[in-house]
Amino acid sequence: MTLLDLASRHADTDAPLITPLVERWSPRAYDPAAELTDDDVRTLLEAARWAPSANNVQPWRFIVARRGTESFTTIHDALMGFNQAWADSAAALIVNIAEVADEAGAPRPWAKYDLGQAVAHLSVQAQHDGLHTHQMGGFDAARLASEFGLADGLEVVSITAVGKVGDAAALPEPLREREVAPRSRKPLDELVIAAA
């Protein structure tokens, strides 16, 4: 797959959705020459900032590292091998952190949910802006917390790769095969337990 056939990655939805949701998918092939500007990063973070949160606590924090920086290398080195095989071409890696306890140590039970909302807002904004994101769970959270000196109560939950789509042919097998495989989702009747 090349940059010219992105339409083949569009979601085959059962109801009309806004364009960024139809076009959103999680590539592993990123353009290794594409860069994010300061404005790009600011816009993504602004979208995350305006996500809803319980009691408007906004319990999300981010570490944004652009390719070529020491922070990017630190994050990349903490990824599991499967993710390391492709994430080095992303324009940036964003560490998504939940503030799971307040300064007094009281738990914030909805923090991870709220962080997920913020990352979803960031992802939809990225798609709208012609960028793509890929969420990752394979990483060493303790290593990242130590490397970046995260305070107690802050928990690394996920990492987001951001950038422009590259050529799938540059990926090693079996990642190349997964990159071009047909997209699928469970049908709604498997996801909805009850609807009145």
UniProtKB/TrEMBL annotation:
Oxidoreductase in keyword set: yes
Family: Belongs to the nitroreductase family.
Source species, domain of life: Bacteria
Organism: Agromyces flavus
Key word Oxidoreductase present: yes
One MF term in the entry's GO annotations: oxidoreductase activity
InterPro entries: Nitroreductase (IPR029479), Nitroreductase-like (IPR000415)
SUPFAM superfamilies cross-referenced by the UniProt entry: FMN-dependent nitroreductase-like (SSF55469)
Name listed for the protein in its UniProt record: Nitroreductase
Nitroreductase domain location: 22-68, 82-164
